[in-house]
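thought: fold this chain, then report.
action: predict
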Amino acid sequence: MNATCDPASAGPVPDDSPEPMTVAERGVWIFLITNITAAVAYAIVVVPRALSQPIDEVSWVVPMLWAIGLQIVGTIVGSIVAAIGSALGLALRGRSPEVELASDERDKDIERYGSRMTQGVLGAGTLVTLVLAMLDADTFWIGNAVFAFGVVSGVVEAVVKIRAYRWGL
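observation:
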């Protein structure tokens, strides 16, 4: 196996070794985890309510707002903590965080690729939501369809990006 010398490390790096995880990739992982966690927490609160009372009486707006808010705050805080931890870890090993954690053209390409791959999911979600509205469905179903398709598109986008980071476009 061929190896190239990595000036930032103590020894040779194999040609087929994975790229170091950038700040952008860490952000994708954190988004995936917080997105799924928020959706599961929302479901734990709302599904029992929906099963035990009429749909038009289910209190779902406040739990959804909490889920969305926690997902946003969790992603921001998690990304900041991960960036600081990564930078400190690299600095303690005598490596340059600015060089190893910097975003590059690959990050931009993966961001665009992930966004393109979720357009179908978002289109389907829009169609389902429009049909529900045209059928005068309860706002519970319309709101939850939007939320569910948002979660699914976020998961699809994150998985597509992670796959691209690990195995290429």
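thought: worth noting. The longest strand covers residues 3-5.
final: tokens above.
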